[in-house]
Amino acid sequence: MKKTKKTYKLHEAILHKDIDMVLSCISNGADVNEKDDNSYAPLHYAAQNNLFEIAKILLDAGAEVDPKDSHGNTPLSEAVFNFRDDSSMITLLLNHGANKFEENNYGISPYSLAESIATTSVFTLLK
């Protein structure tokens, strides 16, 4: 799969938390589902960094809610692993149909990850 400059710009805009650039990339045709060299879709980065507004923009633009990286992790897995007191990202992904039981290449799902490392509040969200 050929990577486009527009897509790398989208990934970069997300990593820089630049909402205006994210919107510009999308309006100029960046693929909201294309993975970078790390096999991360844009939504992985938004979830990993708890960038709620950017994740919402991506989902509203047609981003798949459960893309997998090279290890089989989904954005919901990233959100659970990187949870820091704000459950809005997890709630957003679940409300868009994220599969809490989708296992990665090692048999770990967001649900089982929450059971082992997350706070009670995260585990409660996933029940």
What labels would you give this structure?
Serine Threonine Protein Phosphatase 5, Tetratricopeptide repeat, globular, mainly alpha, 127 residues
Please summarize what this structure is.
This protein has 127 residues and is mainly alpha-helical. Helices cover 52% and strands 0% of the residues.
Describe how the helices and strands are arranged.
Elements: H1 5-15, H2 19-27, H3 42-48, H4 52-60, H5 75-81, H6 88-95, H7 110-117, H8 120-126
Helix pairs in contact: 1-2, 2-4, 3-4, 3-5, 5-6, 5-7, 7-8
Would you mind describing this structure in some detail?
With 127 residues, the chain is mainly α. The chain has one domain (5-126): Ankyrin repeat-containing domain (Serine Threonine Protein Phosphatase 5, Tetratricopeptide repeat), CATH 1.25.40.20. Helices cover 52% and strands 0% of the residues. The protein contains 8 helices and no strands. It is globular. The mean pLDDT is 90.
